[in-house]
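Dear colleague,

Thank you for sharing your sequence with our group. We've completed the structure prediction you requested, and as agreed, I am returning the results in plain text so they can be pasted directly into your records. Please verify that the sequence below matches your submission; if there's any discrepancy, let me know and we will rerun it promptly.
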Amino acid sequence: MRLVCGFLVFVASISSCNETREAQPETLGYDFYPLEIGQYSIYEVEEIKYKITGFDTSIYQLRETIFDSIRSVDRTTYLIRREIRSDELVEWTSDALWSVAATQSYVAVSENSVPYIKLIFPVISGREWNGNSLNVSSERMYYYETVSTSVVDSIHASDHIKVVIEDIQENITGVDLRSEIYAKGIGLIEKDYLTQEKCTASNCGDDLGKVIAGRSLKQSLIEKGRETEVNE
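Please find the predicted structure tokens below.
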């Protein structure tokens, strides 16, 4: 894996009473999601969209760049510019604008204006939380799980953490397996989603049990760095 920057330090607004965070940021796990204006991450992405007539596969690169931040009393919100390209030979094109809200208790990523709590602090294996508590969707429990094998060779497996979003094994109605892996000093390094819906209605005929909808997403970090010219 090609990583081009050193470890970044998570920077967020800190209240005067937050002595624990100032004293032990690594213990709490803030360095699993470092944030800094100008910081960028490039991912290799393989995406498959399933439908009853078959499936479509897309392979592309995704770049996420922090270009600005907004500070308030209890949080800092970082603005993320997302761009895509088919490969390294073509120019980046705009995809979307996301944001990340960082507080003393959690990190929430707004994906297409819908906030999801991706991490809570302290980071402890087995700890659970409702990732949808900031949006109107029904409750969805996330939990931390240790990683046995390093995803980034230069970082020990103990400095990785896996967030399991859904773990519904394949059954007669489909499958829903979603997880993300973070590494200390780097942030998100891998996203692995697989959702499939199978035909179960009585009028399916020969299509009974066939995958009729769903999505597979494999996103892996290939580069991380910081833009040389940054206006902060």
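Summary note from our side: The helical segments are 19-23, 25-28.

Kind regards,
the structure core
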